[in-house]
Write a structure and sequence with these properties.
Bound molecules: S-adenosylmethionine
Strand content: 5-15%
Largest sheet: 7 strands, mixed
Number of helices: 13
CATH class of the largest domain: Alpha Beta
Number of domains: 2
CATH topology of the largest domain: Rossmann fold
Distance between the termini: 43 Å
Structural class: alpha/beta
Number of strands: 7
Order of helices and strands: HEHEHEHEHHHHHHHEHEHE
C-alpha cells in the first residue's frame, strides 16, 4: 500500500480544545491518516476507546495500521459521516440520553494530502488523469456527474460553492462538451476553465482551482454531510464533552459557526418579548470567540493549513 502521508493541521490547538484524558472515549469522523487520532490516542490509552469514520478505504487502512500499536478499544467505520447516527446505532453505541456518547469528537473536513497528491484520484489538474474526485472510491465519478448534470444546476454549484462569476458561461461550455463525452480527464476540464476564465498568470491561482473545488463538493455531497453531522452530534456528546471542527471552505465554516451559535443561544422568542417563553436552554458554550487559524510557523511547515479554521464547543456537564 502506498504511504499515506498527511500532516495534521492545528494539532496543538486541537489537543488544547479536546483536552484528552486517560480512559476517555474519542470519535473521529474524518480519520484520514490518523494524524490527530494518533496524538489523541497517546493521551487516552490504555483503556480509552476510539471510534473512527472515513469514507475512503485507503485512509481507513492507513489509520488502522497507524493506530494498531496503541492499547485502545477501536472501531473503524468505512462510511460517510452523513450516516453517522444510523451507523453508530447499528453497531450498538448508545447516545447521551442512554448514558453513552463521546468525551471528545473531531471533524477535520475536506481532503487529506494523499487524496490530492495521488493523480489517479482525479482531484487535481496538475497531472492529466481520469476525472474521478470520489473520496469513497465508489459511486458516480466527476466525469459521470458532469455528463448528466443540467446547465442551470451546474452554474448554481459553481457560483454558490466557489463564487465563480462566469458560472453561466462556464457551465454551458462544460455541459456541451460533457454531453459529447469530451470531459473525461482533469486536463480536459482545466482547459475548458481556461477557455472561459483566462489562462493562468504567474503569482495568481490557476483559474481551474475553484472550479475543481466546487465540482468536488458536489460529487461528494459534502455540505449535506456536514449539515447531517451538525444536526446529529449534540446527542452523541457526553456531559462536558468537547467538539472540535476544522473547516477549509467558507461554506463549511459558516455552517459550523451558525450551528455553534444556535447551540449556545437557542432561544427562538421574538426580541420584543420581555421574558423567554420558548424555554430552550443553551447546550453549552463555544471554546473560542473567533476561529483559530494556523500561525506563520505552522504555515511555513505545511502550506495546506492555509485556509484551515478551527472552532470548538463544550457541551453542558
Ligand atoms: C483533512 S483529512 C483528515 C486528516 C486527519 N485528521 C489526519 O490528521 O490524518 C479529511 C478526511 O476526511 C474524509 N472525509 C471527508 N468527508 C467525509 C465524510 N463525509 N465522511 C467520512 N469521511 C470523510 C476524507 O476521506 C479524508 O480522509
Amino acid at each position: 500500500m502506498p504511504e499515506f502521508n498527511h500532516i495534521p493541521v492545528l494539532l496543538k490547538d486541537v489537543l488544547n480544545m479536546l483536552a484528552p484524558k486517560p480512559g476517555e472515549r474519542y470519535l473521529d469522523v474524518t480519520l484520514g491518516g490518523a494524524g490527530h487520532a494518533a496524538a489523541i490516542a497517546q493521551h487516552i490509552a490504555p483503556n480509552g476507546e476510539l471510534v473512527g469514520f472515513d469514507r475512503d478505504p485507503d485512509a481507513q487502512r492507513a489509520a488502522q495500521q497507524k493506530l494498531a500499536s496503541f492499547q485502545l478499544k477501536t472501531t473503524f467505520i468505512q462510511s460517510s459521516f452523513i450516516d453517522m447516527d444510523e451507523q453508530l446505532r447499528a453497531l450498538g453505541f448508545e447516545d447521551r440520553s442512554q448514558n453513552g456518547g463521546f468525551d471528545m469528537v473531531l471533524a477535520d473536513l475536506g481532503l487529506s494530502s494523499p487524496q490530492i497528491d495521488n493523480a489517479q484520484r482525479g482531484f487535481s489538474f496538475q497531472t492529466d488523469a481520469p476525472l474521478d474526485m470520489r473520496m469513497s472510491q465508489s459511486g458516480e465519478t466527476a466525469a459521470e456527474f458532469l455528463a448528466r448534470v443540467d446547465e442551470t444546476t451546474l452554474a448554481d454549484i459553481l457560483y454558490q460553492y466557489s463564487d465563480i462569476r462566469q458560472s453561466r458561461a462556464l457551465a454551458r461550455r462544460i455541459c456541451e462538451h460533457a454531453r459529447q463525452g469530451e470531459v473525461q480527464t482533469t486536463s480536459q476540464l482545466a482547459e475548458l476553465c481556461c477557455g472561459i476564465m483566462g489562462y493562468p498568470r504567474p503569482g495568481h491561482p490557476h483559474p481551474a482551482t475553484r472550479v475543481f473545488q466546487a465540482i468536488r463538493i458536489a460529487v461528494n455531497d459534502e455540505f449535506a454531510a456536514i449539515d447531517a453531522f451538525l444536526q446529529a452530534i449534540p446527542k452523541w456528546m457526553k456531559p462536558a464533552g468537547r467538539l472540535a471542527i476544522i473547516s477549509f471552505h467558507s461554506g463549511e465554516d459558516r455552517r459550523v459557526k451558525e450551528a455553534m451559535h444556535r447551540w449556545q443561544n437557542p432561544c427562538t422568542c421574538p426580541p420584543r418579548l420581555p421574558v423567554c417563553i420558548c424555554h430552550k436552554v443553551p447546550l453549552g458554550h463555544t471554546l473560542s470567540k473567533k476561529a483559530i487559524e494556523a500561525t506563520p510557523e505552522e504555515l511555513a511547515q505545511n502550506s495546506r493549513a492555509r485556509s484551515a479554521k478551527l472552532r470548538g464547543f463544550v457541551f453542558n456537564a
